[in-house]
Amino acid sequence: MKELLERNKGLHRTVMIVDDEFIEREILGAMLSDQYAVNYAENGAVALDCLRKNKPLPSLVILDLHMPELDGYSLLKLIRADSELRRIPVIVLTAEKGSEVECLQLGAADFISKPYEAPEIILARVSHSIELAENSVIIHETERDELTGLFNKEFFFEYGKRLDLQNHNMPMDAAVVDINRFHIVNELYGKAYGDLILKRIGNSIHSFVQRTGGLACRAGSNTFYIYIPHDTGLNDQIPEFLSEIEESIDDPKITLRIGLYSDDGSGLDMERRFDRSGLACRKLRNSYSTCFEFYNAELHSKELHAERLINDMDRAIAEKQFKVYYQPKYCITGEKPVLTSAEALVRWLHPEFGMISPGEFISIFEKNGLIQKLDRFVWNEAAAQIRRFKDEFGVYIPISVNVSRVDIFNPLLAEILIDISKTNGIPTEKLLLEITESAYTDNAEQIIDTVHSLRDKGFRIEMDDFGSGYSSLNMLTSLPIDALKLDRAFTCNICSDSKASRLVGIMIEISRLIEVPVIAEGVETKDQMELLKELGCDIIQGYYFSRPLPSDDYEDLVKTELKENRYAYN
Q1: What is the DSSP code (8-state) at residue 549?
Q2: Can you name the residues that pair with 345 across neighbouring β-strands?
Q3: Do 120 and 263 belong together in one domain?
Q4: What is the full DSSP assignment across 108-147?
Q5: Predicted structure pTM score
Q6: Contact 273, 247 (CB under 8 A)
Q7: pLDDT digits (tens, 9 = 90+) for 15-51
Q8: Which residue, 295, 317, 346, sits at the end of a domain?
Q9: Residues 477 and 515 placed together within one structural domain of the fold
C-alpha cells in the first residue's frame, strides 16, 4: 500500500521547505520532488502564515535556522507550542555542529547538514521522520480518550505497569472517580451538556496529575482512574481536588464520589489496587454524608469473605448446603386464621462459617449473576415440596419463590419455570412468583411484558415489598399482578404509629381498587394481626404464626393444620 501511494503522484505526502536562499530551496526540492509534493517558503513568517491558513498540513517541514523576519529557532518554538502544528515533524538545515543538539532539544525530529549529503541519505532521513511522526499520531489518537484527552483504559494500565517497573515498584495510590447518577444528567440536559461535564472533570484530573505525577484515564462512560505516587497527605489533598472539580463544573446538581486505595506496602499489582479503590467507591453509592472513602481493613475483610462465598457457591449447591425454609402464610378473612400457602426462604449451612443469613450472600450473588443458579435451586426444592405434600396429603399447598431482577431479564425464564413445574408434576399456578416492586420501576415495559408472559402460562405473581419501590398509582392499574405484599417496614409500627396504620389502610384500599388480595409480612403480635384484619388485610405471615421452618418441621405443621381443617387456598 505504501509503495502504491508513493507511485501515485496525487496521493504524495507534502513537504514544506523553509529557506531564504532560493538556490538551496530548489536543490533540496529537486531531491524530494519525485516522492513528495513540495511547497516553499522564503522565511519563517511566510511559513507560519501558510501553516495556519492552509489545510491539510504538510507531512514534514524542512527548516533553515538563519533567516530574516522569523528565524528557524523561533519558528520551531512556535510550532512546538501550537496544539495542532506540534504534530508536524521538523528537520532543521544547519552547517553548525553546535546547533544540532539545541534544535533536537527544542523538538526537531532530525537534521540535514549543509552542504547537502547524497540525495538517498536525505530521502531516507525525510521518510524516517515522517513515518515516526505518523506512527506517533496513530498511537496518540488510539491511546487517548477523544472527549477528555486522558488515556483510555487499556493504555493506562499498560503505561502504569511500565511506570511501576521503571521505578522499581515505588509506592503508588489508586483513585476511582465516579459521577453520581450521570445517566440522569444526560437524559435531563442532553448528551452535549454531559460531554461538557466530562471534559471539565477530565481537565481537572489532568491538572491534578500534572501536579502530583502519575497517570489518569477515562475508564468508563462516567468513571475515571488516577494512579499517583503515594502521599500520606492524600486525605487532605482530596477535598481540595474535589473543590477544584466542583468549581470547574459550576453545577451543584453534579456530584462525585471517589474511592481511594492508599499503598500499604503489600505489593499489590495495579489491577488489584483499582479493584479495591473501586470497592470503596461503590460503597459511597447513595451516600450523602461523604463523597470520598478509603479502602480499609473492614472493606478488605468483606471483600475476602465475599470472594470466598462466590468460590464456594457451586460446591454448596452440589452438596445441598443451601437449605430451603418455609414460612407459612395464613388467610385471616374468616372467623379463624387458616393456612393458605408458604414462602420459600433460603439459608446457607456453610461447613466452616455455620448458618449464613441471606443478607450476607444474596446481594453478592445478585451483583455477579450467580443468583440465577441459586434461584433455580430454590425453585426446584419448592416445587418438589409441593409435589410431596400432594402425594402425602392429597392437596396442593402453594409456595411462593423469589424471582430476582437478574432472572427477569433471562429470555428463557418462562421455559425454565415451566420445565420445573412439569418435572415435579405440579400445576404452574401452585408455584407463586414474588417480584419486588422496585423491579417494575427499573425497566417497566420489559418487565411487564415478561410478567404478562408468565401469567399467560398460568403462573401467579405477587408484588413483593410493596410501598418501597415508588410505583406510580397510574402504573399500578396496569401492572399484571395477583397479590400485593406489603413491605415489613409498614407492619412493625402499625400498632404504635397512627400514621403507619393509616398508610397501611390506604395501601389496602389501593389493592381493593385493582382487585387483588393483600399480604402483610413481619407480623409478630396478636395486636398487629387483629388491626390488619380490621383494616381489610387478606393474608399475613410472620413470627406470630410461625418462624421460617425447615422442611421436616414445615411438614409437621401442615399435617397438624390439615388434621384440624385449617387449610384453605383461593
Answers
A1: B
A2: 325
A3: no
A4: --EEEESSP--HHHHHHHHHHHHHHHHHHHHHHHHHB-TT
A5: 0.60
A6: no
A7: 999 998 898 888 999 999 888 989 999 999 999 999 9
A8: 295
A9: yes
